[in-house]
Amino acid sequence: MTLTDLSPAIRPRCPPGACDCDLDNLLVSINADTRILRLTRADEQRLLERLENLNSLADLRRIEQKMEEQVGIRLNISKVSAVRTLRGILIRVEAMPGLCRKTRKAIPAAIRKSLEKHPDIAYQIADMGGLFDELPSE
């Protein structure tokens, strides 16, 4: 019995050479983190829709935490030293075995759409680590 026999909801494989998800090595590895296999296409679409409709930075952080807990996807949101536009905010999804290249590109695109709708979230990200952040309590 293989892992694919136990997981009927596994998403279909990408066409050979079209993706760098390294799904074959994930399925063969014994100690691999297989949480990403829970992310079906329908779940991915719901995630992208939710990311496109963020209401606050707290909402983004909550989804970011759930993504890491439930399927192992890690986001890296940072800013260039002098942010003047949305292009100064860098959103990357860390590569991991089983995570499709298209998904790694779609997640940041969905977040950017949300930041365009709600510039206040982008301003909060731009202010992170700046003068207006709270100092850690000692």
Describe this structure in words.
The protein is mostly helical. 46% of the residues lie in helices and 7% in strands.
Mean pLDDT: 80
- The count of β-strands is 2
Major sheet attributes: 2 strands, antiparallel
Helix content: 40-55%
Cα Rg? 17 Å
> What is the molecular shape?
elongated
Distance between the amino and carboxyl termini: 54 Å
Contiguous runs where pLDDT drops below 50 for at least 5 residues: 1-8
Structural class: mainly alpha
| Series of H and E elements | HHHHEEHH
Strand percent estimate: 5-15%
Main β-sheet, spatial strand arrangement: 1-2
Number of helical segments with 4 or more residues: 6
Short description:
This protein has 138 residues and is mainly alpha-helical. 46% of the residues lie in helices and 7% in strands. Helix 3 runs parallel beside helix 5 and helix 5 packs across helix 6.
